[in-house]
Amino acid sequence: MFRLSNLLSSVINNKPVRELDGSIAIWNFTNRCNLNCLHCYSKSGLDATDTLSTELIFETLPKLKEAGVKFLIFSGGEPLTRKDIYDIADECKRLGIITYLSTNGLYVGKKNAQKILNTFNYIGISIDGDEKSHDYFRGLKGSFKESLKAVELLNSYHQTKVGIRFTITKDTIKDLEFIFKLAEEKKIPKVYISHLVYSGRGLDNLKMDITKEQRKKAVDFIIDKAFYYFENNIDIEIVTGNMEMDAIAFLDRFSKKYPHLKDEMLKRLKKWGGNSAGRKLLNINSEGDVKPDPFFPLSIGNILKEDFLDIWQDKPSELLLRLRQHPRSLKGICKSCEYLDICNGGSRSRANAIYEDLWESDPSCYIKEENNG
Question: What Cα–Cα distance (Å) separates residue 336 from each residue in 4, 228, 348?
């Protein structure tokens, strides 16, 4: 994740940036979901059954803590379909692990809103454009109204813990401006913009991805918004995901507006380090597979068969060790790129999907496009 709003304000105001002191785990606790989203990497559906028992999850959580996991994102499928989801989150709280809930919002109502807010440190609800776009993208008519209703309900408690998530595709890019207008009108405190990764239904629908020209224009718009919000004291945080090259575009713009602070921003971006799959980011899917990120084409182990600490910490595979190199040793345009220590090469999953090679350059990179084919 690239927290451009936080970086912008911290550097200009000469304050410490909000850093990740530890690792993030994204855990798909279930593959069961009430939607049929076009881009879904887990190919979730209502017919799925839960593989991971509450007991196994509780046995694994202290091991995540021991391995340095500080944040646990509850994902799926739809995590709220699990009856034990609050118990799992409470155990995380007992262990000192911060919890984020990633939900479509359709199971959020007046009966459980306060419980959700009391249980989770942050809630992200997916909104993929206006009503027509969202319902098409999510595969259910009426889902936009229900998801937005959940956002408004949770934010009505004035705890500033709820944000919206938006994925850029050819079908939704026209709604990017709408998403920010929605956040401004509804006073939604955080907007997370995700770039498409080719995995699951996202791989099946590779044609959904935008062009490099469209991506550059979209990222310019997002960066414009970040500067506008900062300069006008509008309390909306912007985060982008799955496209670490956004940091390079942001650095270029920041350097032109604040040339005297360029070196400080560059230093912080290098410390941030770009793509952290396998290093400060891990995924456990609904079948118990441990992966460097949710989209990664290969598993490095399975908690149903192996101890998590052996997989992640004590007996790391050669693949994991290579992913943890920083900057990574990559091919293609990444090999000689001057920005590699900022973005760390971007997504290995996209590289593998297009080139069948984990160590090729990220085909979605829009930086220095003339050298990128």
Answer: 25, 34, 17
pTM of the model: 0.92
d(CA 169, CA 195): 8
- Are 266 and 287 contacting, i.e. CB atoms less than 8 angstroms apart? no
Q: In terms of DSSP bridges, do strands 23-28 and 289-291 run parallel, antiparallel, or are they unpaired?
A: unpaired
Report the run of H or E that residue 234 belongs to, with start and end: none
Q: How far is CA 97 from CA 9, 88, 100, in A?
A: 26, 11, 10
With contact defined as beta carbons under 8 Å apart, do 70 and 20 qualify? yes
Amino acid letter at 47? D
% helix, strand, coil for the chain, step of 5: 45, 15, 40
Give residue-wise pLDDT tens across range 192-202. 999 998 765 54
φ, ψ of residue 32 in degrees (nearest 5): -90, 135
Structure tokens at 203: 């791989």
DSSP label of 58: H
